[in-house]
Amino acid sequence: MSIIEAKDVKKWFGDFQALKGISMEIQEGEVLVVCGPSGSGKSTFIRCINRLEQHQEGSIIVDGIELTNDIKNIEAIRSEVGMVFQSFNLFPHLTVLQNITLAPTWVRKKSKSDSEQKAMELLERVGIPEQANKFPGQLSGGQQQRVAIARALAMEPKIMLFDEPTSALDPEMIKEVLDVMKELAKSGMTMIVVTHEMGFAKEVADRVMLFDDGLMVEENTPNEFFDNPKNDRTKLFLSQIL
Amino acid sequence: MVKLLSKIGAFFRNVVVLKWAVQFIFLGGLIALIFNYLNIAVGNLANTNIAFSWGFLGETPGVSIAEGLYTLPKSGLQMLQTGMLNMLRITVTGIIAATFFGTILGIARLSNNYIVEKTATSLLEVVRNVPLLVQILFFQALILSLPRLEVYDVGSVLFHASSKGVALSWPNRQDGAWMFMLYFLITLYISNRVYKQRVKLLEEQGRETKPFLWSLSALVILFAVGWYGGYRIVGIIGFVSGFISQGLEVLPGIFYQILLSVVAGYISITSVRKQISSKRSGELQGKYSDDDYFKMIITIVIAIVFIALMFAPVGQGIAKFLVGDEPTFKSDWGLPQFFGGISNALDWSITGAPYELNMAEIEQVGTTKFKKYSTEVGKSLTVGYFATWLGVVIYTAIFISEIVRAGIMAVSKGQSEAGLSLGLRRSSLLRLIVLPQAVRIMLPPMGNQYLNLAKNTSLGIAVGFPEVVAVGQTLYNQEGQTLPVFLIWMIFFSTVSLTLSTIVNYYNRKLKIVER
């Protein structure tokens, strides 16, 4: 059963059309890597999946719920879909632990002790339990991004969206974040990852997509995508980044 | 010869020498300027045949004040106290109200709702483009257009509004009120301690200790005990004050002169030692810069000047004032009198409820047609009070709304997106994520607006609101003592402003985001 179904999704910013009709299906447990040049609409598309951007035509169905203007649907989908941003977006006025427990306490109405216990487990999982009582400003970029992943996981989402999670990191820190993401992929999480880390795509992706100019120009398995691309645009893209 | 000249030239091109020279020239110039103006002021006063005196503070001014602590002041001091208290009433309630309305308005300005946003924006444009004085006069005219007090209105009422202002039922202070206020402050402190104690227990033992319930019950029980006579326990403080007062009476003036000198000397020495140890402690062997030396020298010079002043007529005057036998100063100030006053106010032989709930009263003055709200029972708020209050509150709220808007907009969009993607509702998002961060940005400019509000209360003079500037002006028109009144104004407004900014700075430091 497909957990996300997008049909002919279109989106305009003023008179600029960012998405020109994207259709795709994602199965539960699948890891999808989306790549493409900047301005190709890949970020806009995954931001449409949890309604940070509003699509104007077509339909998106997440976990059986259609994204409409119904606030109840939007909230339901948002609490099922976790998101990790390029710029981490941790809450700087809260400690690491408070960052992680905030949503479970206020959205899921969990008790403080339960959510703190869960938060500590998640911090163990991303490898930084000793930073629990520090503030985000005291952590390195890689540590911040791992906290952001733990924060999203605390809501026990069915789907995780990654919007260029390693683009703002030093090369040394990229690995620690990718390791966490690989572990997550192996645990069976459904993931959509917008990234330029081709090594990651080769190793863990089930499918790779190339976006260009608001359209999906190629959809393939990783091996086919890198060794035997169907589209000329993909060949050009690969030749530029590899 | 040429060599010497070039040496002198080199000496004056040395930046260290230049720096010191500039510092000393500036300091000398400042002192000369102050002395010059003091000389001119003394000369001018002598020419006008008015001797500089504080005597008016003790004399009965023979005027009545429309509202406040003393409506028929017996001394200039009581008159000024009334004005100061009236000013503080508007400032404190005004700051709370302006913050509240300003925040709502600021959020309304950011609303996606077209009508809400445009209404807020139009209000903003009207209010901030019209002078505050005009707005205060407008509100005065608005209240004056209410119905007048009529004969059939005379009597007790729960609430009444007319062109004379507003009267409402109010708990009026009785003899024990001061004791009860002090008692209540102690109660608040105790319940706060209880709360912290229970929270500590919770953290240590991990069991539910209900800190809020505990502190609330402590507060309620202590309040009830206090209300029915328990407040008299603070009479102990009054008792001790009585002894202090008696003890202070035997101290001569020279004691205070020496005491203040020792304090000044101690402060300057500790401050110099601190400056020394800040660069040289343990392993640290930093070098002193010219600024460090200059600071130390200035600290010592100020202390020496202060000590010298303490044994000059200035110091003798201060000592006389503290001893309480300044002959030209007929009021009851002085340290023995101060503690004596505390001992009188906190007297445990006082009984009865500390407050009494009274209806407002509309009185007819004698057999005349003149009707007014009673100032004795209930609470009456005059037209002047309302016009000034509304004026400063709305004016300040508008500027606060812009600060709130800027503060919210300055929190990056990513923060909202992160919150939304976690499934938070917009209201929770605002309360938990955006506002706590925006407040940190808003606080410093907010402090400026609070200072503005405090200072703008002086415009109450235009609508007959007896705040400190209005009563001060009445006083010097009567007595001719312009300079002392100006000094009192300056000291009072500086004290209020500095207190406000200290509070704001305290919170600013407390809320600072932790960076590495």
Automatic annotation (TrEMBL), chain A:
SMART domains (alphabetical)? AAA
EC number(s) stated in the UniProt entry for this protein: 7.4.2.1
Do the record's keywords include Repeat?
no
**Catalysed reactions, semicolon-separated:** a polar amino acid(out) + ATP + H2O = a polar amino acid(in) + ADP + phosphate + H(+)
- Matches recorded under InterPro entries: AAA+_ATPase, ABC_ATPase_HisP-typ, ABC_transporter-like_ATP-bd, ABC_transporter-like_CS, MetN_ABC_transporter-like, P-loop_NTPase
Which segments constitute the ABC transporter domain? 4-238
Q: Which CDD domains match?
A: ABC_HisP_GlnQ
Q: Which GO terms describe its molecular function?
A: ATP binding; ATP hydrolysis activity; ATPase-coupled polar amino acid-transporter activity
Q: Which keywords appear in this protein's UniProt record, sorted alphabetically?
A: ATP-binding, Nucleotide-binding, Transport
Family, per entry: Belongs to the ABC transporter superfamily.
**What is the name attached to this protein's record?**
ABC-type polar-amino-acid transporter
Give the organism, scientific name. Answer: Candidatus Actinomarina minuta
**Organism classification, top ranks?**
Bacteria, Bacillati, Actinomycetota, Actinomycetes, Candidatus Actinomarinidae
